[in-house]
Amino acid sequence: QEVFTAYYGQRLPAATPYRSFVTWLAGQDRVAAQRAWGAALDGFDTPTLVGSPASTGRRGVESYRISEEITRSLTELARAQHTTVNTVLQAAWAQVLTWLTGQHDVAFGTAVSGRPADLAGADSIVGLLINTVPVRANITAATTGADLLDQLQRAHNDTVEYEHLALNEIHHAVGLDRLFDTLFVYENYPIDAGALLGVQELAITDFSSREYNHYPLSVVAMPGHELGLRVEFDTDVFAVADIETVIDRLRQVLTAITADPARRLSSIDLLGEPEHDRLDRWGNRAVLNRPESELVSIPALFAAQVERAPEAMAITCGERSWTYGELDSTANRLAHYLASRGAGPGERVALLLARTGEAIAAILAVLKTGAAYLPIDPAHPDSRIEFVLSDAAPIAAVTTAELLPRLGMSSVPAIDINDPAVMSQPDTALPAPAVDDIAYIIYTSGTTGAPKGVAVTHRNVAQLLESLDAELALGQVWTQCHSLAFDYSVWEIWGALLYGGRLLMVPDAVVRSPEDLHAMLVSEQVSVLSQTPSAFYALQTADALQPEMGQQLKLQTVVFGGEALEPQRLSSWFDSHPGLPRMINMYGITETTVHASFREIGNGDVESNSSPIGVPLEHLAFFVLDGWLRQVPVGVVGELYVAGSGQANGYLGRSDLTTTRFVACPFGAPGSRMYRTGDLVQWG
Hints:
Blueprint: H1 2-7, H2 18-26, H3 30-40, E1 59-66, H4 68-80, H5 85-101, E2 105-112, E3 131-138, H6 145-159, H7 167-174, E4 182-186, E5 217-222, E6 227-234, H8 240-259, H9 273-283, H10 298-308, E7 313-317, E8 320-323, H11 324-340, E9 348-352, H12 357-369, E10 372-376, H13 382-392, E11 396-399, E12 414-416, H14 420-423, E13 438-444, E14 452-457, H15 458-469, E15 477-480, H16 488-497, E16 502-505, H17 508-511, H18 514-523, E17 528-531, H19 533-545, H20 547-550, E18 557-560, H21 571-576, E19 582-585, E20 597-601, E21 615-616, E22 620-625, E23 638-644, E24 650-651, H22 655-661, E25 662-664, E26 673-681
Parallel strand pairs: 4-5, 7-16, 9-10, 9-11, 11-12, 15-16, 17-18, 18-19
Antiparallel strand pairs: 1-6, 2-3, 5-6, 7-8, 13-14, 14-24, 19-20, 20-21, 22-23, 23-26, 25-26
Helix pairs in contact: 3-7, 4-5, 4-8, 5-6, 5-8, 11-12, 18-19
């Protein structure tokens, strides 16, 4: 009407001056506004972000329509719930954000007109009064669609009179620099079609507007018989196909909540069958329906290797070495002695020993009795040693005269590994233990800080090595660099000794010296090196300082584990050593028997800032789940759960903790379990 009035030369009424709004704004209670927004966002501590601050790609725009049937259902639901269509749309968008981010307490921005109802003439003020304010949705497993609508409506009622507060002040009120990076706006201002017609057949036939914001994703909903959606997005973050998927998810949620507002939102599965199939394939879900492999215990596997090549070299430790036959005889004598002292299936024997060939023989001896070995690192403080001995209650502790005082006041009987009585025992083998007997108890602090004993069976170790035999050439010359109380040592020891390799016991002083370790790798012609990434970075530096020596390396495989790998730090190694060795990143946790995944790292990975852990080993299955145990889509962060036959029996004497970490698996057979790792990952 203003256009037509001006066109026909008529005088327009004076607009309310902008200073009226400034005066009104200055009179508002800023403290009350901050308090209201602080209450609305109380407990919100993780921003809801779909992009990164560095994303500055080209802006894309796509338009979509929501069917007339769904649009009509939105209006009916809003009327039945005594709320608005805008609130229904906000509830649906919040649910889509939980799918996009894996979070259940989410926030997004919405635009408000900023023209206060209690300011006379506010609608005629010339100027931009629009403000962006947050909308928060805190969704639990029990929240229904109706519950969420009530929650959003109450939050709106509590903050509507404070929508004038600037977004940066809201950030300050809640102590966060960012709250969200998506917008959802409902353009509900009325358009009078009759107002577009003038007299003398003059009419406005078309009009358009241009808007811009810096957020990587914004959606504008426009009312009509078919709800219209205009989506603006950062093309560095989203492809058009991604946006189509987002809108398809929005349609699914709208259909679900309008059909049954009493339905729990956590029961709405936004993944289609093709997506589930892809995730199941990547995660190796099919393994959960396969029968267990026919496996035997560690002593049985070792005995077969002794029979094949008794004169082959098994262990090198300084100036001393053991053939497979000698190692077997040494272990058998100690096994007989331990058995006479009560060692057997269901029992535990502590090993307080330095990393030597004798320690490996002691491990094998305990396993031959059917008992589980309990490794204790002499470098651990007295308090830890005392705790482990008290908690695990071993029937004996094998140690040396030098280390005997470290047992302190413990009542555990001590056995000197060098006792002449051991040497007088027969060197014949004891009956092999059952494959499902416990092989070892390793204490790990994990995320709780309290040491807990993880019980792992012979089957688990045999299964691990069988799976990796298909990926790696086991045997060869292996280093043993890690504490026997760290489960990485299990992989180092048996990857060599159960496959005919030679195990090189690397002295602690050499482990701590990258230069000396580099020289030993060359002199001993080591084939397989297992390292934490941080230790390898130091070795890489030593290699760069000795390029001629580095060319003499015979490494076939480097296995990373124990911490997150940064592939970009391997660039210089790939330049110096193209081809070999293979660089393998293996994610794992003690509770799933050392290693759980396999990913070969190549030169193409050095540009990445992520730490790729690959796919599960063939006997395991991976599920990346949200807090409601729903699979999350590709690219969305979730918690990793590991299922399959490599899981530990649980925590020694901690049934309460076992039940919270080893939980029922909804993807396998009834009664199956999966381990909740606590690690956040994403498929990509």
